[in-house]
Amino acid sequence: MNNDLEGLAKLIRYYSLVSTTEAGSGHPTSSLSAADLMAGLLFGGTFRSDLEDPRHPNNDRLIFSKGHASPLFYAIWAAAGKVTEKELLTLRKFNSPLEGHPTPAFRYTEAATGSLGQGLSIGLGMAMNAKYLDKLPYRTYVLLGDSEMAEGSVWEAMEIAAYYKLGNLVGILDVNRLGQRGETMYGHDLSIYKRKVAAFGWEPIVIDGHHLPQIVTAFEQASQMSDRPYMIIARTLKGKGVSFIEDKNGWHGKALKKDELARALRELGPVDRGLRGRIEPPQGAKPARVRSVMAASVTYTTEKPVATRHAYGTALTRLASQYPDMVVLDGEVSNSTYAEIFKKAYPERFFEMFIAEQNMVGTALGLSIRSKVPFVSTFAAFMTRAADQVRMSQYSNANVKFCGSHAGVSIGEDGSSQMGLEDLSLFRAILGSVVFYPSDAVSTEKLVEEMAKHQGICYLRTTRMDTPILYRSDEAFWIGGSKILRSSKKDKATVVAAGITLHEALKAYDALRKEGILIRVIDLYSVKPVDVATLRQAAEDTGFIITVEDHYAEGGIADAVRTALSKDPVPVHGLAVRAMPKSGKPEELLEYEGISAKTIVEAVKQRMS
Amino acid sequence: MNNDLEGLAKLIRYYSLVSTTEAGSGHPTSSLSAADLMAGLLFGGTFRSDLEDPRHPNNDRLIFSKGHASPLFYAIWAAAGKVTEKELLTLRKFNSPLEGHPTPAFRYTEAATGSLGQGLSIGLGMAMNAKYLDKLPYRTYVLLGDSEMAEGSVWEAMEIAAYYKLGNLVGILDVNRLGQRGETMYGHDLSIYKRKVAAFGWEPIVIDGHHLPQIVTAFEQASQMSDRPYMIIARTLKGKGVSFIEDKNGWHGKALKKDELARALRELGPVDRGLRGRIEPPQGAKPARVRSVMAASVTYTTEKPVATRHAYGTALTRLASQYPDMVVLDGEVSNSTYAEIFKKAYPERFFEMFIAEQNMVGTALGLSIRSKVPFVSTFAAFMTRAADQVRMSQYSNANVKFCGSHAGVSIGEDGSSQMGLEDLSLFRAILGSVVFYPSDAVSTEKLVEEMAKHQGICYLRTTRMDTPILYRSDEAFWIGGSKILRSSKKDKATVVAAGITLHEALKAYDALRKEGILIRVIDLYSVKPVDVATLRQAAEDTGFIITVEDHYAEGGIADAVRTALSKDPVPVHGLAVRAMPKSGKPEELLEYEGISAKTIVEAVKQRMS
Fold this sequence. Notes:
2 copies of one chain form a homodimer. Chain A is of the alpha/beta class.
């Protein structure tokens, strides 16, 4: 391997400048600061990748956590001969795979980035996969900006990478001193980064990020690490190589104008546009197979109530043998979410992620990109902690399964901070997501299996308390389905519920029936997509719908039902959590919030009066 | 001050045990580990508070970031004579102020906690207020659990507290080794915490958390700090004082049964239940007045389009003199959100919070509790990063104003990662929130003022690009209002829009009018609460509504409108972002997502055919 690193670095700079000027926007200066680092990484002899097969299981992985340096990202693959100059000039244009921030539309993108501070967690998932699951020698490299080191999510990834002894994970910190609107917290004081990185259990090395031999040596050293992640802390200059933008404030995210570009290129000097860097392919190793043992099937009997959160843990364990790529992550609450049932059966496929939800979700995304099927659990309330990571995962075609336990005020005494009351809203607003909210153990079992089968982002909402079994073990459940539990030709109203409130709806049915009033009761276990046909039929038959949900009034079941009926609407009376939640017994709180059987009965009667 | 610290610590343990057993749930073991620390803090002579006036501006502040130790929190105020034994026994009961996790229902609670890792940010806001705004000598103390140190948000607070040289902020880290489901990442290795804390610029001291003289000395030293925040890292035992639960796994969040309590109390020995600790009141200092200068009023002319994000910055600056408690925080994007306009005019009331959104929101909450009116800005997309902090702020009666810029696909070339497409959903699902989405500079000006006037959580969504001025400077806007921009007796449909899509709706109006088709156009600038009367009238008059929003289909304007019409519904056709967003020109993307004038025209015509 004798690549002309100087020439390639110059070519990469050239491409970064030309493509952004053509686009009229973008981040040339943030690209130039890391150009030498990336030239050294890709073409310095350490990096291994089969460029014909970007998804090769043993390729080294490269993630641009500082996603705004996308011009650099595309430029390095151009320098490797995989993007043409013509393609480079489509940067940021509609339908070009070369988007403003990297997305999977470009085939060498591992994961979409651009929300800062998330790349290291994704890389962690890939490194974890290499070390503990696929057992492959590939390494994962993450390019970080100095500004994004302010994000707590980075430090979550730092601590967890050290905890899991991920010597195959390499961070490259591009300390170019300047953020978007001025100097970063520490400027060019690299000793602070070194101290922090070391305190978090990583091996730090400080280098001149524009000195190619130092860069190449650092990557060689990084490849010797066995059980400590390695952070290359590089002193760089933003805009390096072009005097009038180099280390200057006010040039963040600005493309050069045509005349400025001409000046810049004159400074850069002659560029060999025919030069291409060679990258060695990886060993042809195959991923390790994971242990697979047949689990007994589970039968729930109607005699004994079971919490849906418990059924989640049981289901994971039962499905583990059929889905060998399934892995489980939990945020230090596995004895509450019942992910611990899986952990006990398959400890090698369970990862304790501690109380660091952001990193947990980023790690899950990384695992999912490496063909695993991660199930991620914590309290529904704490899913909000990772809302940005959930949001970003939709742009990486993630195949991640989320389970939020302890939904709603029905958790009782712990009070508002522990109550998931906005989780349906959070996950419904994710493009193409599936949102399930089962009411009993049987449907939970079946829906967890649907999640494992389905390719995409799924969310399962579980309940803290034991709830009665409603379904026979052979009942079928599917994405977009629902169940009509009570129905007659004389129904005066339809009650649509899911989870804990479905049991309230059934109680209301019994109470009303005693008074000769019949209602339809629908179990809307698939909150997204929603069973439009069944809801429309109910609207037509009964002319009035009551929704009941242990969730805030916005973004949940009522909104899903109203949307389903928007062509031929009927009145939809939404019962939901509207008063300030507090501690109390579950039944007191259902009453207080107006989502109990009593309120349903009142709403039906009011309609009839 | 000669409090009997040993006796008070024992009394606090007694109360923590008895109240949780009576409640039948709660966290006695997590309370016992920090009992000596809290006895030493409150009654050791350093802490200053006027117990008759918990909101006294110069009281020392105490925040239980480990909110699950609420039995301890209530016990210390009982030991101070401010909670009766009878009240203690209402712990976790419906309508008791002593909730499962502290909330403002209890008068000595500074802020609701219980979602771990958030307390230090809140304390930071209070300390920042003391040092830079009120200029008062009070100190802020935050009790932290060791498990929650895994949360990235804690390290955001650490770095920013050091950056702002908050020597008046004291962390108390209760290293009891055990988390919820087992040992923490570092167990009792306090040296790791010390290294990390020091690396983040704090002054660490390691003590035995059950040795009262060491504790008292540590707090005395802490009160000598001038410009470095101080972290007391205390080695403690979970369940300390009761042998069969002390330092034992499996006792997290479990109340003792009656017989276990009896055993525990025998071990504890005689308790002086008449003992009360004395706390000295603070100096009667008053908050400093902030500089207040009259700003010129702003007049927008119809000739020149202005971005609503720019109008936000201008409005803040104009209002600063009328609202002297207003402060502005931004997440390192003030030149994009235009918070920088305020920063330039009032640098002493602007705080750069760097790229650490979680801490920014927690800090804002702390400032708001100390009577400031914080305006917090970043890209709308990155508000999701702090979704859990936003969620928790609603339980602290927060008075925080959020501004998310760069909403929607109309930002263009930067691509999906930078597009706020779920922010309306996020903020609508906050109890009692106000959500504004102005379409021009004049309404932005007026709505920022409404936010400043209103007590509570408000969100303002702004647009990247320049948009035409629609309103005269004397037009009035209010919470729950809307504007009918086009209307006639012959309207065939109503188009409800806000922000960028309102301009598309107006274009659609013009195009349709040329063909002799009239529509009503409503500017729904107040997305929550929504103008039900105007929407109902439009539904009645036109029988058909089209909503158009640069936001995902769930949780935004369509849902708000359907909810408003749920009693007498008409068909609502929702145009929203439904295809995978990407880079491109704003107009290309509006077209691609089906939220442009063209799609509106088509939808109207389809309805009429």
